[in-house]
Structure prediction request, 288 residues.
Amino acid sequence: MRPIRKVVIPVAGWGTRSLPATKNIPKEMLPIYNKPVIQYVVEEAQQSKIEDVIFVTNRDKSVIEDHFDYNLQLESVLERAGKLDKLEEVRHVAEMVNIMSVRQKKQLGLGHAVLCARGLVGDEPFAVMVGDDLMFSGKPGIGQLIDVALSENMPVIGVMEVPWEKVSRYGIIAGEEVSPGVFRVSDMVEKPAQHEAPSRLAIVGRYVLTPDIFDHLQEVKPGIGGEIQLTDALRSLAHARGMMAVRMEGTRFDAGDWAEFLTANIYFAMQDEKLHTELTALLNRFVM
Prediction:
């Protein structure tokens, strides 16, 4: 398999789970501590040696692309004020990766969003990272998948174990563990009832795919609401050429879930030595 140079990050959704905060602000731009959600995702890609980021966006989300561009007026203000550390931070964001974008003109599901990027991806393998799924570990989440994809020459999906009572919220895989934490996928099912789930291994927002996924996406029949489900195309691809799954190491936060979003803010703020003591004291006031 060729090296993974590109990542597709779908960011065209309306963020309805996070309303009213996302009425006029993309959910991907909501802050986790001192960075927007999307910056953590792009940093994970950069740390995994991905060079090109393809945002699948809509007409109201140009602010996401702007975040990864230079802001010459702000930079001038910071330079004149002698705030060189802040100047370095904002310039670093603009220089992290190459940014491209394509519009998803109708919100027809994650599978459709990935299909929209076909022209920019071309004929090479690529990563997909869901823009509101945050993964933190010693080794970047998408990098864990890339290593297996390159060694096995197969598409790879990221999974994590979830409680049985939550399997109906996810795509769930069936498969054989061929080495610690690595599975050969035999099947998958989207949001099964608890008694029908083949395992507790839930598909989370990280994928390394081969370009033939696009042919499978074009063959997928739209489901409820006319949406094209990525899981359906993955199942077809797995049956056609094989697929691996990696039980991802680290901590995951779903930024679209308020409890996890707030927990992520506290988690990162607690890593800041300047805030740790004061934040701990303030939080203790609310602990019963």
